[in-house]
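Lab notebook: predicted structure, single chain.

Context: the supervisor wants predicted structures on file for every construct in the current expression panel, including those that have not yet been purified. This is the next one on the list. No modifications to the sequence; it matches the entry in the shared construct table.
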Amino acid sequence: MITRTINLALVLLVVMGPLSSVRADEKSSAENAKARMEAAKKFYKGYLARQTTGVAAATPFDPELLYRWSVRWMEAQSDLNDKKEDRVRAAEEHLVRMKDLEGTVTELVKNGLIRGYEPAAAEFYRLEAEKWLAERKAK
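Prediction complete. Output recorded below exactly as produced.
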């Protein structure tokens, strides 16, 4: 009887031990995703504000930099939750940012502040965001 109880206790330790560490890993993973999302959001908004307020006139505007940080923001936001609607929302928000970026780039070209071919890159970013959103909705 004692041996049986000890064996049962060992089985429970073996089974429950990994489960508790999985829960801890899930929590730290969510905390990591949230921190990554906040960092990406902070950089994106800060860089955009700096560029559009004229503070960085000596530094050329880099739409690709905003695109990459928006993608990081979307990916981290998607990592926060496995629900389809949350992944779709993250892609929708990325698409809105890319549409805004496309408009900003178009205005900057009109004002002679960036090169005339740069709207093509912004168009690509928007089209890619539309594709990702469609894929997430289909899954």
